[in-house]
Amino acid sequence: MPLPKSIATVCLSGALPDKLEAAALVGFQGVEIFENDLLTYDGSPEEVGRLCRDLGLAVTIYQPFRDFEAMPEPQRRRNLDRAERKFDTMQALGTDLILVCSNTQPATLPEAERAAADLREMAERAAKRGLRVGYEALAWGRQVSLWRQAWDIVRQADHPALGLILDSFHTLSRGDDLAGLEAVPAEKLFFLQLADAPRLSMDVLSWSRHFRLFPGQGELPVADFLRDVLRAGYAGPVSLEIFNDEFRAAPVRRIARDALRSLVLLDDQVRGAVPVPASPLPAAPTLAGIEFVEFAVDDAAREALGGFLGTLGFRRAGLHRSKAVELQRQGGVNLVLNSEPDSAAAERFEMFGPAVCAMALRVDDPDRALARARALLSPAWQERVGQGEQRIPAIRAPDGTLVYLVRTGSDIWADDFQLLPGEGGAPAFTGIDHVVQALAPGHLDGFVLFYRAVFGLDAEPVFELPDPFGIVRSRTLSAANRTVRLPLNVSESRQTGTGRFVSAYAGAGVHHIAFAAPDAAALVAAAPDAPMLEIPENYYDDLAARLGLEDAQLAALQRAHLLFDQDAQGGRFTHAYTQAFQDRFFFEVVERRGGYDQYGAANAAVRMAAQARQQKK
Amino acid sequence: MPLPKSIATVCLSGALPDKLEAAALVGFQGVEIFENDLLTYDGSPEEVGRLCRDLGLAVTIYQPFRDFEAMPEPQRRRNLDRAERKFDTMQALGTDLILVCSNTQPATLPEAERAAADLREMAERAAKRGLRVGYEALAWGRQVSLWRQAWDIVRQADHPALGLILDSFHTLSRGDDLAGLEAVPAEKLFFLQLADAPRLSMDVLSWSRHFRLFPGQGELPVADFLRDVLRAGYAGPVSLEIFNDEFRAAPVRRIARDALRSLVLLDDQVRGAVPVPASPLPAAPTLAGIEFVEFAVDDAAREALGGFLGTLGFRRAGLHRSKAVELQRQGGVNLVLNSEPDSAAAERFEMFGPAVCAMALRVDDPDRALARARALLSPAWQERVGQGEQRIPAIRAPDGTLVYLVRTGSDIWADDFQLLPGEGGAPAFTGIDHVVQALAPGHLDGFVLFYRAVFGLDAEPVFELPDPFGIVRSRTLSAANRTVRLPLNVSESRQTGTGRFVSAYAGAGVHHIAFAAPDAAALVAAAPDAPMLEIPENYYDDLAARLGLEDAQLAALQRAHLLFDQDAQGGRFTHAYTQAFQDRFFFEVVERRGGYDQYGAANAAVRMAAQARQQKK
C-alpha cells in the first residue's frame, strides 16, 4: 500500500478553501492545517473541519504550537492555558494531533527535565480529550535543535499521548542523520514531515522559511531519510511542509500537482523499505537522443525558417502526407515545421509566434514511459492522425509543450511523410547536442521535478549567469548517457522591455538548439551565408591572455566567430551561435572534445551582450 | 574640495557606452572599467578610452586581474604574460592603474614571500610602461583575505609602482576594521572602493556578488570606514563598486543618480576628516509632522472620496480660491483632493486613477531643505500658482510624487483657500501617524537613500511579511522625533493578477494612510457608517490564547474590528483598517500607548487576507 499522503496548507497559495480544494483535487489524502492559514480565514474551525471532510481530506495535524516548553512562570502557566484553547480548535477541526516545535525564546530554561515535565503535563491534558502531542526539534531551537535531544525529552516525559515528530529539513540542513532512530519505539513516531532544499550557505532559519523545495527538486537526501524512518517502523502519513516564496506566488493547482508528484516519486524511490508500495512505478525510460524538434509556424514563417536553416546546410527532406508539415534535415538532425491549422502547433503559434511546440525523445519503450508519466500525474496526449499514419504518444511538459515518445531505432518518417530525394550538405551535424528552454519566473523547480521524475534525468546544481540587464539562473537536466541534455534558464530580471534578450523568451519555451558537429570550424566555414553572431575582438584578446592560445588558433576561432572553453581536465568546447531568427530563437554549432561535459557558461555573457547589440540594431 | 567621484561600470545596466554616458551625465568624474564590460563590448579599448575622454571621464582603474600571485609554475610565468597583455589594454584605455585581487585558487601557495616576489615582478614590468599595480584583499581570498595581510605583502614587495587598494565591503563584511592603517604610508594607498550592504547571514561571496548597496542604503559603517581612510592620508578618488542584481536590471540613469547621491551624502558625513569638502551640505531639516496628503482625483472620485472620508468624521473645510481643489479635515489631519485639470495631479490621475500625488512635510526651514535636496541631485519643483497665492516649494520623490516643504507653524491654508465654517466631529484625530507606500520591485533601496539623504530620516532594518500570495518586504523610514513615519513596502510576488492586493498598488505609491487617535475604539464607535475591514473570529480566539486578554477587552476589540499588538516593553498598539477606496488605497485608525514604536506587523497577514477576501467579493 502506498504511504498516505498529506500536505501542509502553508505550501500552497490563496485562501484556505482554495488550498484545501487543490490538495483534494490532485489526490492528497490529508492536510496539515497551518495555524496562520486558519487565523486569517473568516470561517470557523468547525467549518474548516467540515470542508475537509466534504473533500475527503483527513486533517492529519494542527501546527505549529510554538515556544511552549521549559519557560519560567508565569509564562509556563499561561502556555498551558494557551494549549487548552488550541485543543478546542483541534477538536473543532477534527484532528487529534498537534505539533509542538522546540522553543526558540531566549528565556527557555536549559533543563531537559523541565521541558519533559511541561510536555508531560500538556500530553496529560490532551489525553483527557483523546488528543495527542507531537514534539519536533526545530533546527534553530534554543535548547533543542536535534531530533535526538527531542527524543530524550519525549522519553523522559514518558506519556502515551506524547511522541516524536521528524522533519527531513530540520535534520538534513544541520548535516545530521537518523542514526540511532531504530532505538525509538515505532509507536513513539507520531508524524513525519518531508522537505527538500537546495544547498545554500545562509542561516538555517532564512533557508528554511523561503527556499524549501518538494522532494526531488533540491539537493538533500530526502529518500534516504524516508527509508530510515520507514525501517524504524513508522507507518503514518508522509506530509510535505514546504515554505517557498515562489510556490506561495504560483497558481495553487500547479503547485499541488508538483507536490503530489514528488511524493509518488519518493514512494518509488523507497521501494524495498516497509511498507512496500502496491504498484511500483514503471522504470524510467532509457533515452537515446532527440529524434526531432518541432516548430509552430505559419506559411510565411515556415518559408523564412526554412531559408534560415538552409544557410546551415539543412534541406527540405519530406512533406507530411496529410498535414501542412515539413521535415528539414541536416545529417542526424530532424526539425519539423508545422503550419497545420487547428492543431496544437497552431495554438502555440497564436500565442507566441514562431516557437518550438514539441520535442521527441527516443526511448526504449514508449508504452512503459507513458505509464510512468501517467502514474506521475502527467497524462498522455494525442494529436489527431490521418488514415494509415503513425500514432506517436506524447505527454505535456509543465508549460504545455509536447514531449513525443519515439521507440529507439524505429522509423517514424516513412509512413507519414513523403520523403524527398536530395543530398545533405557536407560537413554534417551528428545530432542535437542540447535544447535550452527559457522558463517563466517560478517555473524552474517544477520543470526540474517533471524531467527528473518522468524521464529519470539527472539535475545539475543551479548555475548563475550575468546578462547585460540582470541575472540568469540555469540548471541542466541530462540523461546519464548524455544523449539528452536540457539546460533550463530563468531570468531574474523583473522588468521586461526592449533589449532584454533572455527575458523576451520567458515562458515561450525553447530559445536555442545546439547541433553537434565533429568539426565546428569546418562546419561554419562551409556555411558562409549563415548569419553567425559577431563576437567582439576584445573576447579574443582576453582568450589569448587567459589560455595562452597560439596566434593561428586564435585567428581561426575569430574568423569563424567561434567561442572556446576548456575544462580542468583538458576537455575542449568550440562553439558558435547564429543570430536570432525573428528575435525568437537561435541555433548553436558545438564541438565537444576530450570529454568536455559543460555548456561554455564562461562565454554566456559575451553571447548575451552580442545578442543585445544585435537586437538594438 | 570634495573628493573626486568614480564608479565601476559593473554597477550599471546596459552596454558599456550606456554606462559611461549615464555616469558622465549625472556628474561622475571617473569610472572603473570592469573587465567583463569591456570583453563583451564590440569596440576596441582605444575606442572606449576615447569615449571616456570625450565624456570628460577619467578611467580611474582597470579591474579585476584575478588569481595572479603565488601560483606554481608554469602558471606563474603564464600569469606574467597575461599581465603584459592587460597592460596593453590599460594603455589603450588610458589608465595607469590595475587592480589585482587576492588569489582564490586552491593551488595558491601559502607563502607571503612568493606573493610579494610575484607582485614585485609585475610592478617592475608595469613601471617600465609608466603603469601601477594595486593589490586588494578579497574577503574570500585563498591565502589573503584581510587588508593587513595584503599590506604585509605590498610592504615586503617594496616597489614604488605597487600599492594597496582598500574596499569597504571586503573589510566590513568580515567584521574587520581599519585599526593600524595609520602605519601605512599615504603614498601606498593607491585606490579606494566603497560599497554598503544589508546585514545578511549568508556566505560572503554570494553576499558580495548580489546584494551590495550604495553607501547609505545598507547597514555597514561605510562613513566611519571612509573617515579612517582619509585620516590615513588618502587623497585619491572614492569609487563605488556595487554588485547588485536589482541595480543591473534597473534604468541606468536612475541608478547612476542614486550612486552619486550616495557619495555626496558621504562627503558630508566625513566632514572634519581631511580633505574638507568646500561646500558642506545644508543641514537636514527638523521635521514636525505631515501637514497634508494630496490625492489626484477627478470630479466623480472627489465626490466619492469625500463621502468615504465623511464616514470617519472628515468634513469639507475649504475650497481653493483658483483651482478645483478641496480641503478635507478631521482634527489635526488635512487631506487635499485635487481635480484641477492640466496639473501634476491630473497627470497622476491619468496614469493611476485616484492616487496620492503629493505629501507635505513640516520643516524648520524650507529654503535650507530645498538647498540640501538640490545638492543631493533632487531638484526643486514648482506648481503654477494664482495671483496672491502661496508658493510652496516642493521636490520630486524618486517615483515622481511631490514632497512639499511647509514651514513649521505657518498657515498655508488661509491665503489659498476659502475656509468653510463647520464643527469637526468628535472624537478627533490628532494627526497623521504614518503613510505607507507600495513601491515597484527594485525601487526600495533608491527610496531609502532619498529619504535618508534629503530628509535625514532613519531607516529601520528590512522586515518580511507573508501575504496570501507571496512575500512583502518592508522597511520603515522615520524622523528621530517620530513626527514622520514612512513605511515602504515592496511585493516580491512576480505575478500580477486579481486577488493580489498589495501588488495591485506596486508603483502607484501611497496605498495606506494611518490617522492617530487618542482612543481608537471610541473613534470607530463614533463612526458607525465607516466601512471597516472585517476581521475573522479566529484572530480573536488566537489573541486570547496568545496574550491572555480579558473576555470583555476581547469583545470590545472584536466589536470595533480592532487589531491589537503588544511589544516586549508592554507598549500597546490598537488599530483598525477601513476597506479599500475603489480598490486603490485605504485608511487606518491607530492608537499608540506606552511608547509602542512599531506598526502591528504581527497583524499584517490577517489584514492582507481580509483584503484579499474583500477584493474577491
TrEMBL record, chains A, B:
Enzyme class label: lyase
Catalytic activity, reaction form: 3-dehydroshikimate = 3,4-dihydroxybenzoate + H2O
Superkingdom field = Bacteria
- The VOC domain sits at 289-408, 431-578
Query: Which residues does Mg(2+) bind?
Result: H434, H512, E588
Q: Name one Pfam family in it.
A: Glyoxalase_5
- Positions that bind a divalent metal cation: E136, D167, Q193, E241
**Which cofactor is recorded for it?**
a divalent metal cation
The UniProt record lists the EC number as 4.2.1.118
UniProt keyword annotations, A-Z: Lyase, Metal-binding
Instruction: Provide the function of this protein.
Output: Catalyzes the conversion of 3-dehydroshikimate to protocatechuate (3,4-dihydroxybenzoate), a common intermediate of quinate and shikimate degradation pathways.
Q: Which PANTHER family match?
A: HYDROXYPYRUVATE ISOMERASE, XYLOSE ISOMERASE-LIKE TIM BARREL DOMAIN-CONTAINING PROTEIN
The UniProt entry's sequence similarity note says:
Belongs to the bacterial two-domain DSD family.
User: Can you name this protein?
Assistant: 3-dehydroshikimate dehydratase
